[in-house]
Write a structure and sequence with these properties.
The chain is about 30% helix and about 30% strand. It is an alpha+beta fold. Pathway: Purine metabolism; IMP biosynthesis via de novo pathway; 5-amino-1-(5-phospho-D-ribosyl)imidazole-4-carboxamide from 5-amino-1-(5-phospho-D-ribosyl)imidazole-4-carboxylate: step 1/2.
Length: about 260
């Protein structure tokens, strides 16, 4: 069997050359990082859960007309995606004050914002993903004004949908990060949603208890990271109650099946 060609490796995923032109295989790792990779660790089974959760959310978004790079899930840790030209901007959508926003503005964490706030950061691990404005984006040509309108519109639509989806299972969507890419049709570029949507890039709080069900458990040394990710999957109907968590570890799963 031919060895697949690796295209890129990030903090949480690896991209391989896809089976058809214009496609990639996205592999979800168990590696966990925080504070621009200053803190590193592993969350057992995270890649399996994020693959499944992201597949579920991207499929639902496609049903409401949000264009995405997702094509289909291939196995426990991999999905087939469209190859896109990534826009070098991280889009943060905030509904509740938390994390850097709370610290930066001196707002008590958990304060509901008077309106949804969209912020941008320049995608650069070397620079620590610095915050940028629309003026920076226009001045340096990272995205056109038309593309930014599309990104903003999609971000608001995604927020409205996800807020309702998670509220329906007793989870408050505090904030989340999105990435977008361009796909080209001759000289025409179209903006579509890329990357992933999972507890790695969302702040998700239990609506009754305020319990954190996301990567903040790793960032803040709260423990129970794997259990939190599993709880999100269970509430979304992706992991049946009583499911043996060993299935979330690929090596253990293979051994149990005698492979």
């Amino acid at each position: 069997m031919a060895r697949r060609r690796q295209i890129y490796e990030g903090k949480a995923k690896i991209l391989y050359e896809g089976p058809e032109p214009g496609t990639l295989i996205q592999y979800f790792k168990d590696d966990a990082t925080a504070f621009n990779a200053q803190k590193k660790g592993t969350i057992n089974g995270k890649g399996v859960l994020n693959n499944r959760i992201s597949e579920h959310i991207f499929t639902l978004l496609d049903h409401i007309g949000v264009p995405t790079h997702f094509i289909r899930r291939l196995n426990m840790r991999e999905q087939l995606i469209r190859q896109v030209e990534i826009v070098p901007i991280e889009v943060m959508v905030r509904n509740v004050a938390a994390g850097t926003l709370a610290k930066r503005l001196g707002i008590e964490e958990g304060t509901r914002l008077p309106r949804t706030i969209i912020e941008y950061a320049y995608k650069s691990d070397e620079l620590g993903d610095p915050m940028i404005s629309d003026e920076h984006i226009a001045a340096f040509g990272w995205a056109s004004q038309e593309e930014m309108h599309d990104i903003q519109d999609l971000a608001i639509r995604i927020n409205d949908f996800l807020s309702g989806l998670f509220a329906g299972v007793g989870i408050r969507l505090v904030d989340f990060k999105l990435e977008f890419g361009r796909i080209w049709d001759n000289d025409y570029g179209r903006i579509i949603l890329a990357d992933e949507i999972s507890p790695d890039c969302c702040r998700l709080w239990d609506m009754a208890s305020g319990e954190k069900l996301d990567k903040d458990r790793f960032r803040r040394d709260l423990g129970g990271e794997a259990e939190a990710y599993q709880e999100v999957a269970r509430r979304l109907g992706l992991l049946p109650d009583g499911e043996d968590s060993a299935v979330l570890d690929l090596e253990s799963h293979r051994k149990r099946r005698g492979k």
